[in-house]
Amino acid sequence: MKKIIIAIDGFSSCGKSTLAKSLAQHLQYAYIDSGAMYRATTLYLLRNEVLPANEAGIKKALQQIDIQFKRINEVNTTFLNGENVESEIRGLEVSSHVSEVAAISTVRRSMVNIQRTAGRQKGIVMDGRDIGTVVFPKAELKIFLTATLEERIRRRVLQLEKQGKNISREEIEKNLQHRDHIDSTRADSPLRQAEDAVLIDNTNLSEPEQLAMTIALAQERMIKENE
Ligand code: DC
Q1: Measured between alpha carbons, how far is 203 from 178 in angstroms, rounded to an integer?
Q2: 227 lies in a domain?
Q3: Does the pTM exceed 0.90?
Q4: Residue 44 is part of which domain span?
Q5: Ligand 1 site residues, Cβ closer than 6 angstroms
Q6: Contact indicator for 41, 134 with CB cutoff of 8 Å
C-alpha cells in the first residue's frame, strides 16, 4: 500500500492534534505537531530576549535551534536543543507570543523546510495552519477542522485544568481570539482552508466519530493512490 500525506489545519484548540495523533497511530504513520515547532522557537527567542523585529538575531537563533520529537510514555514530547520543553511550550507565556513569532517569514521558511523534509517519505500526519496550503499543497488528504469559539474555549479550559494550570476563562478567550486574528490575517501563509480540503465541524462530534470519519477518508485516498 502506497503511503500518503495527511494535512490537518484549523484554528487553535479545535482538537487538531488529538485527531492527528489518533489517526497517525491508527495508520502507523509518523505524526508531526507543527505548532510545537513554532512554540519551541518562541520559547528560545523569549529566553534569549530576541525580539521579533531583530531580523539578524532571529536568523542567528534559527541556526542554533534543534527541535526533536520523541515519544515518552506514549506521549509525543518536544525537545529543544535536547531539553524536554513539552510543558513549558504549552504555558500562557509562550502561547501569548507564538503567533507574533509565527508571522515572521524567516521563521516560517525555516520551519517549512524542516516539515517538508519530514514528509519526504510520506506516511505522515501533520497538523497546523498552513500544512495543506503551503507545506504540502499536494497532500493526498487535507482536512480543515473547525468548532465554535465557545466549544474551543471549553476544551482549552479543560485541557489547562488537567495540567493543573489555573487560568481564567476570560484570559483564555482573549488569547484564542488574539491568536485567531493574527494567524488568519498575517501576510505570510495566513490560516485558510485549502480549496481541496474536507471541512469538518467537530463542535458536536466525539473523538471516535471524528477518527472514524477521517480513517474512511484516508482509506479512500489510499485506494486512489494505489489504482
Ligand atoms: O497549533 P498551536 O496552537 O500549537 O500553534 C501555535 C501557534 O503557531 C499558532 O498561533 C499558529 C502558529 N502555527 C502556524 O503559524 N503554522 C503552523 N503550521 C502551525 C502553527
Answers
A1: 21
A2: no
A3: yes
A4: 5-222
A5: 12, 34-35, 38-39, 98-99, 102, 128-131, 179, 183
A6: no
